[in-house]
Amino acid sequence: MINKKRLLEMLVDFAEVWPREVTPRLVNLYADVLKGYPAEDIETAFRQVLATNRYKFPDPSAFVEALGGYTPSGVQTKNPMREFRADDPSFNADPKD
């Protein structure tokens, strides 16, 4: 879980690119949606969205998508990007095998 001070800093970074007022209420909304995700994963998702988002200030769903999704029971615990390993033998396997 990420602390609200760090979340505020990241949202202000986005506001530099896509101008928007970052209010305490906005920070609380994002914090509520992202609670339960590890801070490291949130930081990675923010960098990914910053690098790939276009046109507007990203809404919370952009970060949930970057984190691997959301389930009815709560937070998706497996982030597919975090589990990818290029040195995994199955990644480098010959498709004919």
Overall description:
This protein is mainly α. It has one domain. The chain contains five helices and two strands; from the N terminus they run H-H-H-H-E-E-H. The protein has a two-stranded antiparallel ribbon. A hairpin with a 2-residue loop joins strand 1 (70-71) and strand 2 (74-75). Helix 2 (24-34) packs parallel to helix 4 (60-66) and helix 3 (39-52) packs across helix 4. The termini are far apart.
Structure, briefly:
By secondary structure, this protein is mainly α. The protein contains five helices and two strands. The chain has one domain (4-83).
Q: Unreliable stretches, pLDDT < 50, 5 or more residues?
A: none
User: How much helicity do the residues have?
Assistant: 40-55%
User: Could you say which structural class the secondary elements and strand pairing correspond to?
Assistant: mainly alpha
Output the number of helix runs: 5
